[in-house]
């Protein structure tokens, strides 16, 4: 192992110890170690994985002598293959129908909280192959007294004449399904199931595909730490996602999709951009525009009204584009070191074969919404 890779491993391990101390303390329990592996374990295995390009035989790679002294003790004796076997053994198709019957809600069943009722119903929905949506909520004196949970396909979308002008309309997801679960607060402080309907007006999907449904996708605290550590170490999001998938024994056991992975990184980057930084950028652009009205800038907001993407072009670039804008290249491969934002310049070539910049954008991510 090269010295550079070992230094990267030490850096990642240090970050993991600082950020997930509570998880690292659980490594002493073998059961917890298998189901909640340390991020330091996963990323150290990833960084220390031998490369086939080095000509190392499979027999040599499996040799315990190639493991760095103390590494097995550090990892708690676990490995990715063991984690995969445990995750695979947890799903038994032969007992699936029996589990569904045992987990089916019953009228009169009680829960200690509304969240507990939701988790129970959502677990049942995962085994049945449908997604859950939270519906009616009634409070009295700042306390929840009634809550209903419905199938995600409940109801129908309201008619909007503007939808007729949409070029690529979204697929209809609601079909008027009446499956639901209602709980009410009782005098004893427990939440009791008052109504349950398990009849769906639509075909349910296979439980092996339930992980695609929205209510069953969640980035856990441990997974979030791994995502952030991978980003800090310069590992591509796709590689981190594939590593986590192997750790969980497959994508169906991971609990979220690659899209959720990218959305989490996007959200963290938005948090890192302080409001004063955004205000300073806008102030700078307005100053340049006041000095030269030909300068142009624009920005994009997300659903929460936060600044996400910036676009700007100066007077010189406008002139260059009018002269040499016949061929233009759009490149998003460059990322700043401090914030990890994609910097996307529009570039061309003048009559001296020199690269010129027509305009530039600073993006939060490379999703389709950012490029529209």
Automatic annotation (TrEMBL):
Residues 119-204 form the FAR1 domain. Residues 327-371 form the MULE transposase domain. This is Protein FAR1-RELATED SEQUENCE.
């Amino acid at each position: 192992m090269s010295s550079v890779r070992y230094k990267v491993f030490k850096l990642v391990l240090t970050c993991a110890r600082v950020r997930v101390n509570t998880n690292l303390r659980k490594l002493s329990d073998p059961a917890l170690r298998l189901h909640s592996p340390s991020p330091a374990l996963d990323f150290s295995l990833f960084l220390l994985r031998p490369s086939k390009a080095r000509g190392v035989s499979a027999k040599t790679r499996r040799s315990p002598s190639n493991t760095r002294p103390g590494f097995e003790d550090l990892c708690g004796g676990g490995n990715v293959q063991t984690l995969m076997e445990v995750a695979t053994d947890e799903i038994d198709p032969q007992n699936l129908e029996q589990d569904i019957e045992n987990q089916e809600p019953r009228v009169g069943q009680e829960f200690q909280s509304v969240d507990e009722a939701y988790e129970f119903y959502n677990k049942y929905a995962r085994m049945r192959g449908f997604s859950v949506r939270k519906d009616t909520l009634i409070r009295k004196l700042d306390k929840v007294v009634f809550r209903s949970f419905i199938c995600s396909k409940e109801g129908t979308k309201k008619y909007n004449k503007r939808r007729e002008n949409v070029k690529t309309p979204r697929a209809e997801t609601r079909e008027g399904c009446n499956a639901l679960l209602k709980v009410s607060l009782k005098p004893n402080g427990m939440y009791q199931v008052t109504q349950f309907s398990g009849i769906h007006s639509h075909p349910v999907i296979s439980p092996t595909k339930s992980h695609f449904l929205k209510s069953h996708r969640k980035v856990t605290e441990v997974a979030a730490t791994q995502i952030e550590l991978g980003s800090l170490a310069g590992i591509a999001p796709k590689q981190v996602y594939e590593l986590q998938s192997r750790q969980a024994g497959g994508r169906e056991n991971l609990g979220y999709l690659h899209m959720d992975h990218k959305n989490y990184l996007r959200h963290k980057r938005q948090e890192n951009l302080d409001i004063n930084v955004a205000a300073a950028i806008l102030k700078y652009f307005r100053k340049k525009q006041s000095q030269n009205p030909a300068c142009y800038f624009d920005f994009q907001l997300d659903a929460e009204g936060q600044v996400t993407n910036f676009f700007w072009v100066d007077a010189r670039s406008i002139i260059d584009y009018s002269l040499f804008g016949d061929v233009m290249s759009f490149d998003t491969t460059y990322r700043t070191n401090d914030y990890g934002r994609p910097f996307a310049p529009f570039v061309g070539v003048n009559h001296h074969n020199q690269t010129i910049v027509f305009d530039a954008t600073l993006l939060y991510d490379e999703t389709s919404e950012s490029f529209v």
